[in-house]
Amino acid sequence: MTRTPADGGATRDAGGRDDPVEVVRHVHFAMTGSFPLRLADLFFADDALYVAEYGHLTPLFGLGTGEHRRAAADARRTYEEGGAEAVLRRADTVRRYAPEALDRVTLHDGGWLGRPRVAVSPATGRGHAYRLHEVPEFDALADAVSEWGVGRGVTVECGSGIGGGPVERLARLLPE
């Protein structure tokens, strides 16, 4: 793979890492499922899953004014111009999940009612879920993430519907 800013050739010094982040699949314009709402980009990379969270939103002043779309467009430009490193560097929070630290990654297509969802469940600690606001083709995403998981020993589950049970949804509302 040739490293260019558009395909994720980047360096990252967080977590003791200083070599290129080889992005296998980039998921852009996701939103956390807990408050405060944050936008997120997910980078399924050779060595880990990176989640860059940015842009704290409120329903009235963030979503109601279209701030989430502007922030996502800014993140897209940042990725196109500077690669994954630039997005990770500008993020408010970066979560790095090494494959051995993941219990599973679950994808749901959103059914007829909701948006697609990616849930990240670490082996220990609290998981995080992200609703996807920009998914060109869900089946292609599910295939790419499943392939990523197989190559790293990570269980990837794909399903229909909105995903997440009532207990999981309530737990996300509690502080970490």
TrEMBL record:
<protein>
    <recommendedName>
        <fullName>SAM-dependent methyltransferase</fullName>
    </recommendedName>
</protein>
